[in-house]
Amino acid sequence: MSQPPVSTTTGPTQAREGSLDAPTRHPLDWKHPDFWDAAALEREMERVFDLCHGCRRCVSLCQSFPTLFDLVDASTTMEVDGVAKADYARVVEQCYLCDLCYQTKCPYIPPHAWNIDFPHLMLRAKAVHFRRHGAPLSAKLLSNTTAVGRLASIPVVVDAVNWGNRQPALRGAIEKTLGVHRDAQVPAYRSPTALRAMPHDDPGEGAVAAGPTRGKVAVFVTCYGNHNHPTMVEDLVAVLRHNDIPVKLIRRNQCCGMPKLELGDLDSVDAYTRRNLPPLSDAVEGNWDIIAPVPSCVLMFKQELPLMYPDDAQVQAIRRAIFDPFEYLMHRQNAGLLKHDFRNPLGTIAWQAACHQRVQNIGPKTKQVLELVPDTRVTAIERCSGHDGTYGVKTATYAHARRIAKPVENRVKQAEAAHFTSDCVMAGAHIAHGLGDGATAEHPVTLLRIAYGI
Length: 454
Prior knowledge:
Strand content: 5-15%
Distance between the termini: 61 Å
Number of domains: 4
Strand order of the largest sheet: 2-1-3-4
Low-confidence stretches: 1-16
Structural class: mainly alpha
Radius of gyration: 22 Å
Number of strands: 7
Mean pLDDT: 91
């Protein structure tokens, strides 16, 4: 296998093979004309696929890599040059941008001279395809979480939507029209939403800084937290206030853009970002920290958008100000400010570490905080749930998603735990659905509220 030259598609590198420098991530140069050049993209995909074929370390992560390797092994040359270029799309379709190959497996990421960033290469391929061919109306609708959530959460509509999602006949019709598998777990919608149910915001007085945090929190409630799981937001606010942290909700917001990013619709990501920047920047300038209860939303503001807008001061300021909930609580713990007045032990907890939380490189903060509760032990399961946005519900990928989730489900069963949890409520619901025993997943912050007895 040859060693192709270094790619500069996603940014220049001064790396050298064998460098001991820390891993880095190049900005996503999506505004450069070369980014959208289909021929250049095809050459880069061939280069990276050739290197992945020679390594195969990521074969167990998701369906993208088995798809690639099967194509190679079935080709006449048994090398990447024998794979039809049209079949590259089959590899791209199976990538849901979990980022685990980059963050946990690949030995050839920058500053290595081979400069591989597989997730962002797949993102580029999705973006080029979307710009040239668009996407089915069903895919656009499923990725428009704000609009769908607003409609489905209308008081008169919400009961009908939830009822319909439980009817086999209607699910069959939805499968045909929207491509949502009839057996997939779909979230219920709630009314009132989190923003409507929690009208009271703290003024921000009495904040006490801890580590890089400033001691008062503005919550980015997320589409899911607002429309599907408002109790998650309520529990987060209760835990923060119990620890004497002033809290307010960011009340003017748009979807973080992750569903559109996964679709390759970068223009919509840009539009969402422009709407979100003013209220989030106002919070940062007012010395508020930002927390979002969904890992994908935190990752979007902490990693993806800063890489898309490396020179935007507002985006970079938000990156520095946003935290995972348990990352934030551990800063309080390290400063001696986290309360330990727990009333209820939690016993054994099976905790699935969500992919988009793992790749934030913050460590197992959820596990560390929950194990501060007396008589509580957390069994960590560091495997992907297979849900990952719409991948786990679409008819075309539902079977793959269930297969990816199976090892996690087996680990949950083996743990025989009192509680099952995941920081990603969608992943938790997907796994609980696969268990098939009526179990439900609880958000970790809900478990912490139970431990506090508040």
